[in-house]
Here is the input.
Amino acid sequence: MHSGPVVALLASLAMGASACGSSSNSTTGRSARSGSAATQPGQPVRFLPNGIRTLARGRLPDGQRFSILAQHYTFQGRRYLTLSAQEDNGDGSGFNPGTEPGPMPFSSLLTCSRKPVTVVYGLLRTASDTPILRSAHRSLPLTRAPIPTDLPAGGELVYGLASSAATLILKSSTGSVEQSVQLPGFPPHPPCTPGSTTSVIAIGRSSH
Here is the structure.
């Protein structure tokens, strides 16, 4: 668990990490408010013009607001696009979907305010696919939000909330299940510390 402002520079860039199924890679740090930042000495990250954009806004059950951002920048001469979720208090995390395989790479941000809730967000690469968040009581499609065409996303943003154990399911236009990933249960392990956040990036192979 951790708390702190949303990081603009992803561990998948600095560490070159990737995995199949799910992982506990998470990132924290200072929010970038200028045209450049640094992950390590001599390795600056430079944000492109209009490189930080708000794609969607929402509200948690306790009233706290959150935003999902796209961050477009260069690192070591290459361009990257990051998706990140951030609470209004600055807590958050993100990931680089461009480095991850699969039809819908996603990340989940667990926020521990008054009641634990998970913000699930990711990149839907095929518009005809349908992402569903299924819990014991209901199944709901994820909300869709367009990503500006000048950003190299290759898909659209999808996101939703889960306040209990849930499964993220991706169905094709024919109804077949392409991806099925179990989200962490509640209460989470380790338990939530009030005011903290943590994230899990789930990528690649489905678990069905």
